[in-house]
Amino acid sequence: xxxxxxxxxxxxxxxxxxxxxxxxxxxxxxxxxxxxxxxxxxxxxxxxxxxxxxxxxxxxxxxxxxxxxxxxxxxxxxxxxxxxxxxxxxxxxxxxxxxxxxxxxxxxxxxxxxxxxxxxxxxxxxxxxxxxxxxxxxxxxxxxxxxxxxxxxxxxxxxxxxxxxxxxxxxxxxxxxxxxxxxxxxxxxxxxxxxxxxxxxxxxxxxxxxxxxxxxxxxxxxxxxxxxxxxxxxxxxxxxxxxxxxxxxxxxxxxxxxxxxxxxxxxxxxxxxxxxxxxxxxxxxxxxxxxxxxxxxxxxxxxxxxxxxxxxxxxxxxxxxxxxxxxxxxxxxxxxxxxxxxxxxxxxxxxxxxxxxxxxxxxxxxxxxxxxxxxxxx
Length: 378
Prior knowledge:
four-stranded mixed β-sheet; 18 helices; 13 strands; repeat; AMPK_gamma/SDS23_families; CBS domain-containing protein CBSX5
């Protein structure tokens, strides 16, 4: 098994993956928002010219709608979202996130996995047919001026290992708790807390590729504020963040595209109370026609609407559910859940009262497989 997996190259994981879309670091936040909403992508690459070789592009980072919403909600931008959307992408890139890493198509899967587990949020792989050379895996992402790249994410690696799950028996049948995969320290906010209080947690969730749990006073999971929810929204969600509680924000998201008039009335009234005139204009006028025009009922937009939230258990909040498992769920079962629902984590709840126990993340799952491979190579 180890010999077989060691012979696989990164290019095996990239088959069928589209070229990443990117913008220069000098582009504005508004440019990025428009590109994300028009293209239907969940994230964009941000490139900068290599100072030592101006014709060479370095992929300096990636941005998603969640990053833009967090940027709009910082104190200095809340009252003037129009000005904030004119700021360059260099202002949005997390200062402590590190560079996106690059690996070559002929690098081994295990070499690339080590880069992911070393903290890279994702990898970029050049799409080209010839003249490939392997770079040290700590290199900054970059390539020639005309090179195209694709993203390689934690999900790609988990799917790769799941396709070879038979080679990892009996580990795959072990419970996530017995494997030490249930991480008790989760990002969580109480349902009646102000949604703005979740922003630091959302930034961490975006970096860690997890989510923010919304819980009751006694620790029961009632929903989440996830990257997928933010990716399916637009700049107007920043007004809801600025005025609503976490629970009310989830209700707002449940009705995204056609929120109740009463909810909109509350949001506008609170914006007036706070003196956030710029944010109020965002709601009351078509301040950004290119973005507002994307709020149609087209099939493309409908397919990107957020997953509605559902409480863990038998009582429903919306049409879909937060993905949960129990401490005794098997590793294979949890992988199936996550991959089927295109999430990079699964919440762990108590089987009896659905209290939040922890979270299983793709990053931790990948460490289990890497440890197994290391042991098999001894």
